[in-house]
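[DERIVE STRUCTURE TOKENS]
===
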Amino acid sequence: MPPFKNYKFPWRQGNYFANLVDSAEFFPRMLAAIDSAREYLLLEMYLVASGAVADRFINALLAAAE
């Protein structure tokens, strides 16, 4: 049986995911994804404190919206 067959949203060819363990892996990849997004972006983050990192994401999202 193919994985995820019984889920409401089945796995589709061409999709992929990567488990990015910590900020050293996650932040650069997410900022690059924001920069390369052309139609939409799904971003889920929890417990984000204000500061330099949050500012980088805010600036990247603002630039992507232009």
Notes: The mean pLDDT is 83. The CA atoms of residues 34 and 41 lie 7 Å apart. The chain has two helices and no strands. Helices lie at 23-36, 52-65.
